[in-house]
Design brief:
Helix content is 30%, strand content 25%. It has 9 helices and 16 strands. Strands 3, 5, 6, 7, 8, 15 and 16 form a 7-stranded mixed sheet that branches. A 6-stranded parallel sheet has the order 11-10-9-12-13-14, with helices on both faces. Strands 2-1-4 form a 3-stranded antiparallel sheet, with no helix packed on it. Helix 7 links the parallel strand 13 and strand 14. The termini are close together. The relative contact order is 0.16.
Length: 330
């Protein structure tokens, strides 16, 4: 089978594209013919060497996939050949990744793809969608009628947070780096969009939410906690999902006096059962049109190195050239 893989960690040019043996199917696994995958920031971190677990050799990159089951293991009883599926949480904790024509996957990490949802859309919403759902409802306890601020409403996770919060009945304030991206946020359902390059975003947020926001979703690798805490309402919740090496100052006094709480989480540490709850809601929203997959471009799997370089440029260097997910097709 064709696959995008690495034999050593490093910059995007360590990614090879070529032939590897098809995966050997274990009794508890299913074999998926991969139709689409998507790129996530964590994929670039792992490729670059930020690993907390041994990598298989060679290591197939990627977490997300969408495709069709072509074979089931001898111990699998509740999945059938021909079922369209999507999933994430691969390429992590020692598991092989998904950037290949075939993937052997434990079906606890797979979900049926609705008939009216494309493989590209399912793959694009996989990790970012589950992340957004866990942060909003498992950790952030977002309720209808509350106000949420999410930084970067066209980013991979940000676009999911924006749409899910809106679907959950919240008032959504977000930021965008250009007029085009601001309009895109409005199309996705944002109530207010702050173009942060042309104004003082903190002052504008204070004007839009004078009592503070109930949930502050931070996507920056180096958060400005002083500004964030000042923008939060009493008993607000702040969600952190980035900044593995960040060590910014933190305003302890203003934070605890307000009775706020801080929630950091990694999606891949959530249980399979918890992620399945998120996936069920994602499927409902995708199939009803309440959730839209924000895809910037679709590339062939052979361009995985190019895709990683582009993702890294936007994640680390904040170049702002992506307006959605990068999807690749074998």
């Amino acid at each position: 089978m064709k696959a995008a893989f690495i034999e050593k960690t490093g910059s995007p040019d360590v990614i090879q594209y070529g032939d590897l043996p098809a995966p050997a199917l274990k009794p508890h696994e299913v074999l998926v013919k991969v139709q689409a995958v998507s790129v996530n920031p964590i994929d670039t971190y792992i490729r670059n060497g930020a690993n907390y677990w041994p990598l298989p050799q060679p290591f197939i990159i990627g977490c997300d996939l969408a495709g069709i089951i072509t074979q089931v293991g001898s111990d699998v009883t509740d999945w059938k050949v021909g079922t369209r599926v999507w999933g994430s949480n691969q390429g992590l904790l020692g598991r092989q990744g998904t950037f290949a024509e075939l993937a052997a996957v434990d079906p606890q990490w797979l979900y049926k793809t609705p008939d009216n949802v494309s493989d590209e859309a399912a793959a694009a919403c996989a990790l970012v969608g589950i992340t957004a759902h866990l942060g909003l409802f498992e950790h952030g306890r977002l309720k209808s009628g509350e106000t949420i601020f999410v930084r970067g409403g066209t980013g991979g996770v940000g676009a999911m947070v924006l749409q899910m919060a809106r679907a959950g009945g919240a008032k959504v304030i977000t930021t965008a780096g250009s007029a085009d991206k601001a309009e895109r946020c409005r199309q996705l359902g944002a109530d207010h969009v702050i173009e942060y390059r042309s104004c003082d975003w903190a002052q504008e947020l204070a004007r839009l939410a004078p009592q503070g926001v109930d949930v502050f979703w931070e996507t920056l690798r180096e958060p400005d906690f002083d500004t964030a805490v000042a923008a939060m309402a009493p008993c607000a919740r702040m969600i952190l999902m980035a900044g593995r090496d960040a060590r910014p100052p933190f305003p302890v006094g203003p934070f605890y006096v307000k009775g706020c709480s801080l929630h950091g989480f990694a999606m891949f540490k959530a249980s399979a059962a918890t992620q399945a709850v998120a996936a069920q809601q994602i499927n409902h929203w995708l199939s009803t049109g309440a959730l839209y997959a924000c895809i910037d471009r679709v590339l062939p799997l052979s361009e995985a190195a190019t895709a990683h370089a582009l993702q890294e440029a936007n994640t680390v260097r904040k170049e702002g050239t992506l307006g959605g997910k990068i999807v690749l097709k074998p």
